Structure formats: C-alpha cells, structure tokens
Structure prediction request, 359 residues.
Amino acid sequence: MHKTIVIGGVIGAYGAKFLAENNEVALIEEHKNEEQPVHCAGLISKSGFERLNINPDKFILNKIRGAKFFSQNTSFEIRTNETKAYVIDRKRFDNELLNSAIDSGVRFINERATDINAGENWTVRTKSSEFNAKNLILATGANYKLHRMLNLPIPKFLNALQYEIFAECEQDMVELHLTKDFFAWLIPVDGYARVGIAGYGNVRENLDNFITNLRAHRKVGEILMKHAGLIPIYDPKFKTDYKFSDLNLRLVGDAAAQVKATTGGGVVMGCLAARHLADKNYENGWRKDIGNELYLHLMIRKFLNKRYKKFDDMLAFANKHKEIFYSGDMDFASKLFKNLGLEFVRHPLMATDVFKILF
Ligand SMILES: Cc1cc2nc3c(=O)[nH]c(=O)nc-3n(C[C@H](O)[C@H](O)[C@H](O)COP(=O)(O)OP(=O)(O)OC[C@H]3O[C@@H](n4cnc5c(N)ncnc54)[C@H](O)[C@@H]3O)c2cc1C
Prediction:
C-alpha cells in the first residue's frame, strides 16, 4: 500500500476518506474540534450536499429559500418555496467528516506540522513525531506557511471579516449587498445572523460602516463573535500537482484556491476536487470536473468588479428577466449561462438590456 500524508482540515478529511481505499493515510490537523476557529458563514447549497453525497441533517442550523441582492439604489430577490441552501454548524460538519475519515481507516494526528523535508520520502515533523511517505497532500486552507516553506506559489486573496450579531432579517433569505470589490453578506442563523464583508481594503472599517448603515434601517444588537479569514482567488494557472522524482505533492481546497470567485464559497468545490486526489492524474481529474465552472465564476467576478458602477442596471435587468435566475445553481455557474442563452432565443429584444450593462 502507498503511504500518504494529508495535512489539513475539512477538505483534507473528505479527500483522505477516498485515499484510504488504496493508501495508508495519516491526516495531520492541528486543531482539536472544539478549538477549531470558524472562518466561514456556513452557507452550503442543498445541491452541493447532494453532489458530495453528505447528509446535512446533523449540522443544519437554518434553511434558506432565496437571496436578496442590493446595489446602491435598487434590489433584486429570488424567492422560492423550497430549501435552496443550508446554514450549517461548521464545527460539527468538520468533525463529522473527520470521524468519517477515521472510520475509513485514516490515522488522525492532532498536531501541527512544523517542518517538511524531501529526501527518499517526504518527512513531515510535528512537535512529538516524524512521519514519512511518498505522497504529500497540502489541504492547509488559506494558511500558506507550508507553501512558503516548500517554495510554492501563493494565490492572491481577499481579506474577510464576519461578526455573529443580532440583526433583524428574514429568517429564510440571505442578503448580499454588492460592493466595489465583492459584497457584504447577512446570513440568518438561529435568532442571530452572520454579517460579514470581504475585499481588498480595510475590511474592519468597511464592516463597521456597513453595520452602522444597517442600524439606520433596522434593529441590530450586540456582536456575539468576530471571525477574520482569507478568501483565496481562483487562478486557472495555479499548479496543484507536483512531482519531485518519485515524490508526489498535491494541493487541494483553499490551499489550491479551488474557490468560487463570485461568492468565496470553497467547501463544495474543494470537496469535489478532493475526490480526485487518488486519481493517477489529479490535475486533469479535478479540472475536468470543476475547472470550467471555477473559471466561469472567475470571469463573472472580473466582469462584476469592472462594471461595479452598473450594479443598479444589472439588478434592474435581473428584475426584468427573473426566469434566468430562478433555475440557476449556486455552485455550477454554467447553468446561468445556459438559461441566459435560452432567454435570448425567446426574447431577442433582451439584447438592448444586455447592451446597456455592457457599455
Ligand atoms: C469569512 C468567510 C466566510 C466563508 N463562508 C463560506 C460559506 O458560507 N460557504 C462556503 O462554502 N465557504 C465559505 N468560506 C470558505 C470556506 O471556509 C473555505 O473554502 C473552506 O473552509 C476551505 O476548507 P479547507 O479544508 O481547504 O481549509 P480550512 O477549512 O481552513 O482547513 C485547513 C485546516 O488545516 C489546518 N492547518 C493548516 N496548517 C497546518 C499545519 N501546518 N499543521 C496542521 N494543520 C494545519 C488549519 O488549522 C485548518 O484547520 C468562507 C471563508 C471565509 C474567510
């Protein structure tokens, strides 16, 4: 059996389970479950759970039926009668995937990997032990210390900050307030909300301003918790599979920037990529599965960032052509373009509205 060392968290655990079918796998993760810092809004699509074949029942905190988008002067909402996404308890979710990996034969080492050396094998050191294997997987999230140690490139990223806070909102609708760089979000959980922002500038100042604005229109109470994090930006040229003579190194999840550039969501895409960790050609495997989708998300993000002055027009367009968005998919952006194409055939005059947004 081949030996594989996986360093990292939730996506590492998900991938380790698949690897354990043909590998002796050691999973090194520094946090004990209860200490795990949560830097996630925990919004995962229902279809995403189905794709990953995970039953979400144990970690659902809230069910979401739609989304409201806000620009400076207008808004647009998609409201359905069915659950489209779940707000989950990330600690419980991460723990469930870890236990599932352990049940599949993965050896769990609850320590920090402090040093990596390449010799006849990869040698990974923790405070108390040393582990050797031909295959090494970095699933270290948006912590790029080990990338730097191995002289690997580091993806570009956005800064993100989120507060858990009492805030008046509809319990089954998420809110996305579009900003120049990205958006601010308000996700209802269970009597409180996760309110956050991501961007390039001073996110603390931007989030505090956003909350001050919210307070002008609705009841917003005390902050219960603050979480900061990084959101890596997908780069189609970012290499995720390395070979050093007979040693293999693979990157997955946020460590490989396998994140939707539209929303910063990385759980579903990272897990889908992790299913290919045992493939002979990992790079081809995951790209065939989700590469085009991640690229589309990136193109949409670039388009939005360039056209931020047109957000009012875009939301007016969305209000006029709601059908396009109703059967969209939170993870697979290609569905939106298919719907757009179909609407174009049905309503050629739509071209005038599209022209208004583009130019
Ligand atoms: C504010 C914010 C909100 C977000 N909201 C959402 C959302 O609503 N939905 C969504 O899908 N995604 C969201 N994301 C993104 C999502 O959190 C990540 O895409 C996801 O957690 C990536 O999983 P991962 O396993 O790659 O990394 P992580 O979840 O970060 O796990 C990596 C783990 O590796 C461990 N580690 C790192 N280095 C070492 C080491 N040397 N030794 C041992 N262990 C190590 C870390 O401690 C960590 O536990 C959000 C991100 C942020 C910042």
Q: What stands out?
A: The chain has eleven helices and 19 strands. Residues 2-38+89-155+237-300 form a domain with the FAD/NAD(P)-binding domain fold (CATH 3.50.50.60). Residues 7-12, 28-31, 39-44, 112-113, 139-143, 146, 160, 162, 196, 229, 231, 253-255, 259, 264-268, 270 surround flavin-adenine dinucleotide (CB under 6 Å). The two ends are 58 Å apart (CA to CA).
